[in-house]
Amino acid sequence: MGLKAQIQTVKKKDPAIKSGLEVILYPSFWAMLFHSAAHKLYLKKHFFTARLISQLSRGWTGIEIHPGAKIGKGVFIDHGMAVVIGETCEIGDNVLIYQGVTLGGTGKDVGKRHPTVGNNVLIGSGARVLGPINIGDNSKIGAGSVVLHDVAPYSTVVGVPGHAVRIRNEACPSDTLDQLMLPDVMEMEINRLKSEYSVLTKRLEESLSELKQENEELREEIKELKNK
Asked: 135-147, pLDDT tens digit by residue?
């Protein structure tokens, strides 16, 4: 992605920016420029030089992107500190990544080891997306979630381990910048337990009523037998 496109991405994604000149103060701006150069060298098998550039970028921005990672257009890393993006990671277009995110591996596997992130995805602060999994287009990963399995498009994923708690046709979560409107997993679980408790209570009351009726009928039968 070119310099002009990088500037437009920063201005589009961060409502705090007041002027175009401020773009040069954003770690994401420099991290993407460094990565673009490092990735080109990586593809030409200049691995040491590519890694050197990525390490210089890491020290300058606090964002660690392996030069082998493939990153699409319009990707923005907000704040950026402690973001880690692995070698075989693939990121689509218009993706928003907050600080502390790891797009990493799960061990010493060979080949594809890191996530593939679709278009228009939002990944919240501190989220861990690990392994060669797929994150579908227009998905939202909640802050602090640990995602270890594929995520369907248009999903909202929260929790440790992360699981989809909502699937709806919400296009471009990365444009809403919304990390707050996420389902409360504990509240959902409590409501589920309340619902199950209500059903079980009703069944118990029905069973007790039936048992009471059967008991009364049995007493009547015994009474009739005694009177004969």
From this structure: 999 999 999 999 9
DSSP secondary structure letters along 166-225: EE-----HHHHT-SS----HHHHHHHHHHHHHHHHHHHHHHHHHHHHHHHHHHHHHHHHH
Distance CA 19, CA 8 (A): 11
Spans of all domains in the chain: 3-181, 184-228
Sign of CA dihedral 110, 136, 123, 77: positive
Q: Is 153 helix (H, G, I), strand (E, B) or coil?
A: coil
> Which among 44, 94, 40, 92 is positioned nearest to 67, based on CA atoms?
40
Q: In the prediction, which pLDDT does 6 show?
A: 73
Q: What is the pLDDT of residues 185-206, one digit of tens each?
A: 666 667 767 788 888 888 888 8
| Residue 203 C-beta-side C-alpha neighbours within 13 Å | 6
Q: Alpha-carbon dihedral of residues 183, 184, 187, 193, nearest 10 degrees?
A: 60
Provide the token pair at 7.
């500037």
Calculate Rg over the CA atoms of the chain: 27
Within a 13 Å sphere around the CA of 23, how many CA atoms are in the beta-carbon half? 18
pTM of the model: 0.76
Half-sphere exposure of residue 141: CA atoms within 13 angstroms, side-chain side: 38
Partnered with residue 71 across adjacent β-strands are 91
CATH class of residue range 3-181: mainly beta
* The Cα angle at residue 72 between residues 68 and 74, in degrees rounded to 5: 135
